[in-house]
Amino acid sequence: MGTATAGKNGQTAWRNWAGNVSAQPARVVTPASVGELQEAVRRAAEQGLRVKAVGTGHSFTAAAATDGVLVRPQALAGITSIDRAAGTVTVAAGTVLKDLNAALAREGLSLTNMGDIMEQTVSGATSTGTHGTGRDSASIAAQIRALELVTADGRLLTCSEKENPEVFAAARLGIGALGIVTSLTFAVEPIFLLTAREEPMAFDRVTAEFEQHFAENEHFEFYWFPHTGNCNTKRNNRSQGPAAPPGPVSAWIEDELLSNGLFQAVNSLGRAVPATIPSIARVASRALSARTYTDIPYKVFTSPRRVRFVEMEYALPRERVVEALRELCAMVDRSRLRISFPVEVRTAPADDIALSTASGRETAYIAVHMYKGTPYQAYFTAAERIFTELGGRPHWGKVHTRDAEYLAKVYPRFAEFTALRDRLDPDRVFGNDYLRRVLGE
């Protein structure tokens, strides 16, 4: 979650969830209506101030940082309509995913796929390309069927495949560069059950069998523990039921004690005494046991994340991911690095969104993490070198050092996006330093 505190001259200092990005906006506005937001954008433009909207600050980049007007859309929240015949739900942009998932479940509905964190707003999650893992089902942005966007001149644009389709093609994942999203319409379906199978597996086996696991499961992912040959795999598949959620003791041990409480303590020790990390990793990677449970989607896809960290994630052509992972493993083994966080591997089908990390290609993701407060640059730099040599695309909301020159090479539709930005925001009302780096002037 981002935090805002009063600063000097009545200004408000803003800091993101991970604490690695901060900003000092000239003012913060919390519009109670779309009309108020439109007026705030018009007024800022007249004053020569830039405008950025920020959700819960879960991005690790400065995508939302500004020295101008910071818009907090939290008052624009909640489901505004459900169309059961069309299989859609329309929701205000400031709605937190956790609230949306719970509200949909009460209506007997669900998103088809989602990431593992529910603390983001729907607009923040989609604008940065948040995704889960899926053989056939794609990112949250790919589930958008329509959206509304306040543009640099204060107009409200309605966008879908039929209305302003060229804006729709890009604005589903716009990194805040095209305007401020006020409303999103998602495809939803009747709620269903997923059976999750979590199982430890050797690194050599899971990499050798990766394509097989991918093909056999609707949602496959795994975590590799650096300094070990151990992984934990997770397979989520639709189930006829009955529901069989983890028992309260089992759930507490796995999700709270091991994944949050003990993990926090272990990382704190590792940060203080890095030499202990390999031994800890070997013990920790063996502490996880196989378990199977069945529940509604958001209770299977998502998990609490209370241990703060910094993250880099790259999208690779799926056929290159095992090669990249083996190179990453070899790099860690021959280095002096001490990595206490597991490396996460997920997949996504190709989609048709201009700047989606899965745009036009079958994709696999590798995410590397470091505990908050631990120097991460050496590890991330070495990992990024491996990923970029294989044509990797960085996650828009996670740490990376790529610029527009590089990104134009790995996104075939990059020029289409920047031309649309030139048309919608020629004066860069929604610009900032991050967008200048990744999109150009």
What does this 3D model show about the protein?
- With 441 residues, the protein is α+β, with helices and mostly antiparallel strands.
- 32% of the residues lie in helices and 25% in strands.
- It has 14 helices and 21 strands.
- The chain has helices at residues 34-46, 97-106, 122-127, 165-171, 203-208, 210-216, 248-272, 277-287, 297-301, 321-334, 377-389, 404-410, 414-424, 433-439; strands at 3-6, 12-15, 22-23, 27-29, 51-53, 69-71, 79-83, 88-92, 109-110, 144-150, 156-160, 180-187, 189-190, 193-202, 219-224, 230-239, 291-295, 309-317, 343-348, 363-371, 393-394.
- The strands form five sheets. The protein has an eight-stranded antiparallel sheet with strand order 17-14-16-15-19-20-18-21, with helices on both faces. The chain has a five-stranded antiparallel sheet with strand order 7-8-12-10-11. A three-stranded antiparallel sheet has the order 1-2-3, with no helix packed on it.
- Strand 10 (144-150) and strand 11 (156-160) form a beta hairpin.
- Helix 7 (248-272) packs antiparallel against helix 8 (277-287), helix 10 (321-334) packs antiparallel against helix 11 (377-389) and helix 12 (404-410) packs across helix 14 (433-439).
- The radius of gyration is 21 Å and the shape is globular.
- The two termini are 29 Å apart.
- The model is unreliable at 5-10 (pLDDT under 50).
